[in-house]
């Protein structure tokens, strides 16, 4: 789907300060990550270890960026898969892919000499959709395997594993996934407000020449409802308009046209899926 088109641009290593806005989400996430960092204290205090963090919110708001930044912040190895990669015609293949993912995390940690790993599963709803309605039966084995892996995580083992997952359809998830000891910490990653949009724009402006006439305030104002991914597109499309006019820098008019284009693109995406 269209929301995956920016994936290739995400850098491999990432800091939390390269994620604009999302102050509350970042703060909650860092508190959760303390479980990996302060594991000795957690154990001494008898606190139930945290195994899973669920990031919820609309597409393109930075959930994948947050998972990557979490790995960097906790000095963990990072392995990732998307729920749709586990969907297979043949029974059992999805389950064995889940097993392989966790195996990969352990092997990679050992190879890189790290004692923790973050396993990120994007679009978890694809395999973790509610079983109550009788749908998704073919994915049951895959989901069961994921639950087995989660239950099998021991905080004493090396590497310590934290599972992060993302969805924009939290209400669809099977209740088994949300039980204590599984994904019991949820963080909302919402569309950015104006301050957040300004901060995202300033991150993506860094490698681009911007003309003096540009008011970022105004761009942030005009992009109400845009996700981080869409804001990144606005700057990119703006640069393409500047290139077409052979201008050395991106001007306000280029960005205004880019806003229209991204907005239109969004509309046609939506229409084509209706
Ligand atoms: P999806 O639901 O499609 O998986 P997502 O929430 O995981 O979306 P990301 O993949 O993290 O979104 O973001 C896509 C791209 O959008 C990023 O590579 C980045 O360029 C830009 N982006 C999104 N959110 C932010 C943000 N808060 N700060 C800076 N850039 C952002």
What does this structure look like?
With 274 residues, the chain is α/β, with parallel strands linked by helices. The protein has ten helices and five strands. It has a five-stranded parallel β-sheet. Helix 4 (93-112) links the parallel strand 2 (77-82) and strand 3 (116-122). Helix 7 crosses helix 9 and helix 9 (228-244) crosses helix 10 (252-273). The longest helix is centred in the C-terminal third of the chain and has 22 residues, at 252-273. The radius of gyration is 20 Å and the shape is elongated. The two termini are 13 Å apart. 41% of the residues are buried. It binds adenosine-5'-triphosphate. Adenosine-5'-triphosphate binds at residues 3-4, 6-7, 9-10, 19-22, 59-65, 122, 166, 168, 200, 203, 228-229, 232.
List keywords for this structure.
alpha/beta, 10 helices, disordered N terminus, five-stranded parallel β-sheet, binds adenosine-5'-triphosphate, about 270 residues
Brief overview:
It contains ten helices and five strands; from the N terminus they run H-H-E-H-E-H-E-H-H-E-E-H-H-H-H. The protein has 274 residues and is α/β, with parallel strands linked by helices.
């Amino acid at each position: 789907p269209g929301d995956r088109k920016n994936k290739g641009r995400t850098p491999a290593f990432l800091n939390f300060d390269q994620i604009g806005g999302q102050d509350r989400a970042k703060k909650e996430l860092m508190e959760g990550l303390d479980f990996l960092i302060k594991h000795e204290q957690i154990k001494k205090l008898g606190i139930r270890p945290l195994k899973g963090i669920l990031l919820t919110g609309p597409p393109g708001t930075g959930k994948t960026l947050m998972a990557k930044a979490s790995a960097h912040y906790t000095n963990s190895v990072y392995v990732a898969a998307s729920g749709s990669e586990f969907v297979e015609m043949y029974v059992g293949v999805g389950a064995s892919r889940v097993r392989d993912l966790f195996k990969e995390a352990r092997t990679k940690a050992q190879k890189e000499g790290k004692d923790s790993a973050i396993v990120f599963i994007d679009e978890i709803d694809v395999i973790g959709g509610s079983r109550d309605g009788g749908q998704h039966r073919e994915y049951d084995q895959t989901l069961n395997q994921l639950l087995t892996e989660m239950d099998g995580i021991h905080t004493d083992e090396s590497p310590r594993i934290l599972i992060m997952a993302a969805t924009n359809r939290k209400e669809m998830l099977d209740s088994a996934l949300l039980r204590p000891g599984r994904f019991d910490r949820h963080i909302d990653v919402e569309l950015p407000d104006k301050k957040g949009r300004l901060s995202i724009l300033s991150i993506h402006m860094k490698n681009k020449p911007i003309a003096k006439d540009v008011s970022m305030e105004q761009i942030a104002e005009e992009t109400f409802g845009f996700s981080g991914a869409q804001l990144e597109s606005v700057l990119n499309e703006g640069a393409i308009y500047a290139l077409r006019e052979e201008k050395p820098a991106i001007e306000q008019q280029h960005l205004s046209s880019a806003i229209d284009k991204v907005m239109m693109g969004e509309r046609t995406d939506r229409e084509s899926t209706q």
